[in-house]
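Structure ticket #2291
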Amino acid sequence: MPGCTQDEVLITALECAERIGITIRALRLYEQHGLISPRRTSKQWRLYGRNEMARLNEILALKTLGLSLRDIAKLLRKQPTDLVQMLALQRDGLEDTRRRAERGLQVIEALQSKVRSGAVASIDDLTTLARETKMTEPSKDIRAWRQYEQMRPRTEIAVDAALLADYAGAYATEDGTISVVSDRDGKLFYRIVGQADIEIFPESSRRFFMKALPVQISFERDANGQVTSLVHHQNGCEDRAEKMDLSQALRVEQEVTKRMQDQKPMPDGDRILRRVIGEHLRGEPDTGSMSPSLAALVEEQKDIIQDELEKAGALTRVAFKGVSQGLDIYEVEFEKTKMEWGIALTFRGKISHLYLRPTF
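Resolution: structure written out below.
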């Protein structure tokens, strides 16, 4: 068949629907929305090959996140199927479902044992049961498809260099994370206070992206055309930051820079880190003390972190190592292992960055 490789397998609409487990009507609907374009025989029968099957997997993965066909069409328009990202999305979704199912089963088994012993289920027991056996989490689904969109390839375009000066300045999120945007030699640079500048490239007159990381920055204007805020898109989150006084932002940055030069820990950093470790060990991290984007990640990973801490044994020692990229780095010793933890606070006292890794 013209345009096909010799070893490519093509199947009919009926075969495609039966193999995937959908209806022919659904295939036609996806085609009407421009999501798939099956090839045709001389008699106009539709044929589906590898590319169409990959796209169908992509569509079905996004549908499980609650996206409408209109949203999916907008997301995938003029974009080839990214098999790597699609597989990552499906794997994350299935692993999250498995973790939630395991937590739910543990709650059910504990409550069954309690009832068998003759005890009465309390209100706390029943609310925990309802929460842990609910198999849908819309907020996480929204983050998942946002992350999928943020990971897609971006295309740089040319924009009027005069626009760049409008975007320069300092911005702060509600929790106190500060970013600085600089216009230099017809290029735009972005940095979180205490970190290095990263060039951002335009994909539209107001939307920019990093080539080094799957991060996008979009700028917003008010009714008078003045730039008032930006949105930082990363890890499925969208953090809005309002424009702030640049001199105040630079003073905060100077304090962070001086701490890095002097290798001096932030005040009360040891106590804060110990508190965070204790919360994670109990499986109850205080996400209210964190920036929204960090809170979302911690909520997703709290079970994994709790498991690692339980294996590590009792906390025996916390020692400050230094300051790097605005984060205080600590060596943390437990009965059975050692870890490195990094933590940073915003100028408003919220935890903005947190990481841990084993050391050997």
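Closing remark: The longest strand covers residues 315-324.
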